[in-house]
Amino acid sequence: MSTLFISDLHLAPDTPAANETLLNFLQPTAPSADALYVLGDLFEYWIGDDGLEHPFARRIADAFRELSDGGTPLYFMHGNRDFLIGSRFARESGMKILEDPTVVNLHGRPTLLMHGDTLCSGDVAYQKFRAMVRNPAWQQAFLTRPLAERLRMAQDVRGQSEQAKQVKEMAIMDVAPATVEEVLRSHAYPRLIHGHTHRPARHEHVVDGHTCERWVLAAWYEQGSYLLCDAVGCRAVPIR
């Protein structure tokens, strides 16, 4: 059996092609796996679970629920765009929310799962923003605002993020090697799978004499692949 990993789909009402790609993936491909992990940024933005009233969000949640009801275990980890996904979405989509980071036994091999944004420690401005929006008090205050206001705020942040990318050095938006090594060391040198950077690849890190494999997941709208892991190992598979 195989385990599948995806991240950085960045789905939204105005991304119909990406939305249909996911729905197609959840039909013939995902049911054959023994589990599916979504490692963050399933959505371009998420303004609270009451957003499930939108037909777009309901369609996505129902598609995952159908897969879960068919017997495929589903796991979700928050990304930097959909960190407000909560218990209602998890319940109605059939997903179990994982902490970031989480270690799993993947076909007999300890594997560390992360979204990946905390590995980009060189992006100081983003890390400060992340600390703010992950604060429970900030989230509670945000979720009490009217839905329309939250939507406007999310769209503003979306635009600001795209502008910031234009002026940041590419290296700052990638993982910091020293941070990766420290994370691998602190978790006893596992295999690491993460997304966020949109730079799909397989890397090897030698940490304290241990060779650790690191897989970076693809952004679907850019590279179009998912990661398949089984008893033999992991490999990227193009989305069909």
Mean pLDDT over all positions: 94
Give the SSE order as H and E letters. Answer: EHEHEHEEEHHHHEEEEE
Oligomeric category: single chain
Point out poorly predicted stretches: none
Strand fraction equals 15-25%
Output the number of helix runs: 7
Helical fraction equals 25-40%
Computed structural class: alpha/beta
Largest sheet: 6 strands, mixed
Q: How far apart are the termini?
A: 20 Å
Number of strands: 11
- Overall shape: it is globular
- Lateral strand order in the biggest sheet: 4-3-2-1-10-11
- CA-atom Rg in angstroms: 17 Å
Question: Can you give me a brief rundown of this structure?
Answer:
The protein is α/β, with parallel strands linked by helices and 240 residues long.
